[in-house]
Amino acid sequence: MTTANPGETGPFFHGTRAVLAPGESLGAGRPSNYRPEVVMRHVYFTALPDGAGLAAELAVELAGGVGEPHVYEVEPTGPWEDDPNVTDKRFPGNPTRSYRSTEPLRVVREVHDWTRLTREALQTWRERLVAMRDSDAEIIN
To answer: What is the torsion angle, in degrees rounded to the nearest 10, for the CA atoms of residue 71, residue 72, residue 74 and residue 80?
Structure first.
């Protein structure tokens, strides 16, 4: 794995429903939010706080509404690459500035200035999640 974009230096963000403290690590080896039967070999992050906010809200949604969404500024502890689930293998370029790593991410701080989804947008995402679960959409792991 190589560093995705030498020009991309962060800051980077990760969205989750987990409550974390500065210095804690986030790593691979957890079930996918989108396909719980798939154990992920990577941990995902983005350079966009609102992208991490979307991931955090979806994590809460996929947990049946349990918990609160949290966005953390994170630092990769090793090399990373473009997330192929949302980049060239599926979409041109990397417009979401999304990345993944097999190495852990270190939590720097919690971020509070990200945009929450509207009720309408959250409902649209609920429908998309149901459609993804009902389809044969594959996660590039």
So the answer is: -20
